[in-house]
Amino acid sequence: MCGIVGLVAKDNCYSRILSTLGRLEYRGYDSAGIALLSEKGFSVRKKKGGVSNLAGEPLAGKTGIGHTRWATHGAPSDANAHPHIAGKFALVHNGIVENYAALKAELLREGETFLSETDSEVIVKLIARAYRGDFFAAVSSVCARLEGAYAIAVLCEDCPEEIVCAKYRSPLVAGVSCDALYVCSDAPALSGEADAIAAARDGEFIHIRDGKITFCDREGNRLERAFTPVTEQERMRDRRRGTFMEEEIFDIPRALSDTLAALRRTDFAPCARAMRSAGKVFAVACGTAFHAALAFKDTVEREVKIPVLCHTSSEFRYRDPLVGKGDLVVAVSQSGETADTLEAARLARSRGAYILAITNVARSSLASLADFSVAMRAGPEIAVAATKSYNCQLLCLYYVAAELCFFRHTRYPAYMAELSALPAAATAAFGTFSAMDSLAQRLQGAQGMYFLGRDADVRTAAEGALKVKEIAYVFAEGYAAGELKHGTLALIEDGFPVLAVATRADLFRKTENALEEVRSRGAYTALFSQCEAISESCADFKCRLPAVCEALMPIIAVIPLQYFALRMCALRGYDPDKPRNLAKSVTVE
């Protein structure tokens, strides 16, 4: 979960790498570093902390690599920051080398010493030992020994204006502009820099030399790869608000509108056979995307009347899942690079399942792996805590559920006629934000809280709780309201916050009963609903939601909870864009 960049440019190499690292920082922000190669050799600057710590007099050189780190092996420190140097080589690495301990033991026996605790330093030490005058061959031979996942970019003092890169189960793209050649962890980070981009596939190498970018296999054989222009959708928008998370919450109406337009242009005919005849339907995802997958399960089971087996991706392949030929697997990942979801999809595909991907990055590994990919149009999401991508995941999954219903029963669910109302309803949800400011002020000192719901509202409750945990560092749990009496009620005491979501009119009173139970035991209660009955609720705090049809309410009901978490975070003095211990794109297991 690190970000890497490599660059060959005639001028401003250091400032360009620094700028790109700033856009990559959502991938890791506990340390950062840059190495430039000039006729005098390597110049290296690396520091614990954010990319801003690298500001200063530019280093000299026309060829460079950069890195922003999310620590796996070794604590954040100057020594553990990348790039790592050995002999004539400098390296940056994203991923995990699973057999690094055995490789390091081998090197130690041969007299090597290490300056860091990282697995990455092992790679550059091996490359230095393997070098016999052929830069590419040295990198290739070492990659053959690595187990795990990696995207690396390597410099060699003997080869000015040359970079050798390798990819295996970590994202890597190449980019070109009129005066520079790039490699990078993702396309959005190159917005404003590269004009056209091509993505590497697993087991491939990218070789920059002689003013050209070449894709090749392990033996150095050239592979044909077309560069395609960077789209406006892939470019990062200018931030107008104080934080990326706030910017992205306010971008939800636009994101929903663009995603709906793209869905309506999508031809689902290639999925017809898989949807019509699937023996079993699975959904796999992690974190926020898993909550969206659970909402998909609810919708399909209600509208299509077939069961959906929903799994967290990290557990899917270790359960020996009963997935096989003729099954449909819906894999959901904002980045399309989530390691566990990719592995779940690979396993399912190896057993003959049809893979349908929902992702926000059209050039991602998941999109390439899938038989059919639905690319939402949320646009680049920089804040670690997902907001607009969740709303768009729900929209895409409801749309896929509707197509599944059509191919199974030759009809669409009634909610399809109401989709156009979503962007306006999302905008109307901003009207709740002043109330969320007040609620956050009231609860900013809480040590824990519950989020309750029934049916689809349980998914919204779980997502609201996750947001509070991620960025405000308050223990929060999303819970089915009917389960309170089965143990959870024991934790209720005076002032304990309980937030409930009730968007199903036929279940409103059931959720109201749960609030009565906790309120009678001293809890502070808040209720979120579009139902008229909210005016008569016993809740201490009430938030009237904009109304759309009940089936689509989860897309709207979560918006005040997203903003509530943001305000809790700000009042408690934290940075919502860079929560501790977390990174945006989880590219390692």
What does this structure look like?
With 589 residues, the chain is an alpha/beta fold. The chain has 3 domains: 3-234, Glutamine Phosphoribosylpyrophosphate, subunit 1, domain 1, CATH 3.60.20; 240-412, Glucose-6-phosphate isomerase like protein, domain 1 (Rossmann fold); 426-576, Rossmann fold (3-Layer(aba) Sandwich), CATH 3.40.50. It contains 17 helices and 25 strands. The strands form 4 sheets. The protein has an 8-stranded antiparallel beta sheet, with helices on one face. A 7-stranded antiparallel beta sheet has the order 5-6-7-8-12-13-14. The protein is globular and about 80 Å long. The protein starts with a strand and ends in an 18-residue tail after the last helix.
Summarize the structure.
By secondary structure, the chain is α/β, with parallel strands linked by helices. It has 17 helices and 25 strands.
Keywords, separated by commas or semicolons:
Glutamine Phosphoribosylpyrophosphate, subunit 1, domain 1; seven-stranded antiparallel β-sheet; globular; eight-stranded antiparallel β-sheet; alpha/beta; Rossmann fold; 17 helices; 589 residues; 25 strands; 3 domains; single chain
Low-confidence runs: none
Give the percentage of residues in beta strands: 15-25%
Strand order across the biggest sheet?
Answer: 3-2-4-1-10-9-11-15
The pLDDT mean sits at 93
Write the layout of secondary structure elements.
Layout: E1 3-9, H1 13-24, E2 31-38, E3 41-48, E4 63-69, E5 84-86, E6 89-97, H2 100-109, H3 120-130, H4 135-143, E7 148-156, E8 163-168, E9 173-176, E10 180-184, E11 196-199, E12 205-209, E13 212-216, E14 222-223, E15 228-229, H5 244-250, H6 252-265, H7 272-277, E16 281-285, H8 287-303, E17 308-312, H9 313-316, E18 328-333, H10 339-350, E19 354-359, H11 365-369, E20 372-375, H12 388-409, H13 422-429, H14 433-443, E21 448-453, H15 456-472, E22 475-480, E23 497-501, H16 508-519, E24 524-529, E25 541-544, H17 553-571
Parallel strand pairs: 16-17, 16-18, 18-19, 19-20, 21-22, 21-23, 23-24, 24-25
Antiparallel strand pairs: 1-4, 1-10, 2-3, 2-4, 5-6, 6-7, 7-8, 8-12, 9-10, 9-11, 11-15, 12-13, 13-14
Helix pairs in contact: 2-3, 3-4, 6-12, 6-13, 8-12, 8-15, 12-17, 13-17, 14-17, 15-17
